[in-house]
Amino acid sequence: MKCPHCSILVRGVPQEAVLLGRDAESNWVAVIQRCGACGRVIIEICEGERNVPEPPSEGDLPVSFKRRQLVQPLAFPHDLDRWSLPLELDREFREACRVLAASPRAAAALGRNCLRSILRSQAGVRPGTLGEEIDFFLSMVEVPVHLRNAVERLRHFGNYQEHPQKCEHPDSLYEVSQEEAQLTLQVVEILSRHYFGERETR
User: Do 5 and 49 contact (CB within 8 A), yes or no?
Assistant: First the structure.
């Protein structure tokens, strides 16, 4: 997992599950982790299936959750303060981070706008639908592999081919999962680090 505090990729983080309650449809569980890199606590409120034979007890994690909501930290962190981002891009990305927990739809829409802005202004992608712009970006031989992989993962995870409205009107609100909204912002962060983060060392 990528720590939402320090953005370092850590593996094998111990998890503690605390059963918060059950209703007619779901089990509600708090999943608590501590990053092995920065030591800060990560808390998610998770919704599990209600019709399992035995609801999860404290300390036990079900195989999967229907939905996970990050509550600590509240906003997806970033270190863009030290980068020379264009004003509008900086404003939209900060807003997307602030609303991520409350509205994944709004965060994803703002994130898609940021993605389009970077592809056009920094990668030299010719304007089109967001899907066409992503295709053009992925076809560019000069694009580093890690950037190509990040954008390709977002396109696949967001199922852009089956939901073309995300590409035709990327700034509109559509139903997305918390994971897709967060991944959208992660991809924007990766692209920003590449195109803007290196400038401070020049």
Answer: no
**Whether the Cβ atoms of residue 151 and residue 138 lie closer than 8 Å to each other:** yes
Q: Which of 70, 17, 72 shows the shortest CA–CA distance to 41? A: 72
- Judge contact between 138 and 148, C-beta under 8 A: yes
Q: Are 119 and 134 in contact (CB under 8 A)?
A: yes
Q: Which has the closest alpha carbon to 70: 40, 49, 92, 90?
A: 40
Which token pair is 61? Answer: 């994690």
Tokens 């404290």 found at: 58
Q: DSSP 3-state assignment of 30?
A: strand
User: For the chain, which residues make up each domain, given as ranges?
Assistant: 15-72, 80-201
Q: pLDDT tens digits for 147-171?
A: 999 999 988 887 777 777 777 777 7
Question: Which pair of structure tokens corresponds to residue 28?
Answer: 């509600």
**3-state DSSP call for residue 71?**
strand
Q: With 70 as the cut, is the pLDDT of residue 201 above it? A: no
Q: Which fold has domain 80-201?
A: Four Helix Bundle (Hemerythrin (Met), subunit A) (1.20.120)
- Whether the link from the prior residue into 144 is cis, omega within 30° of 0, is no
Is 0.70 surpassed by the pTM of this model? no
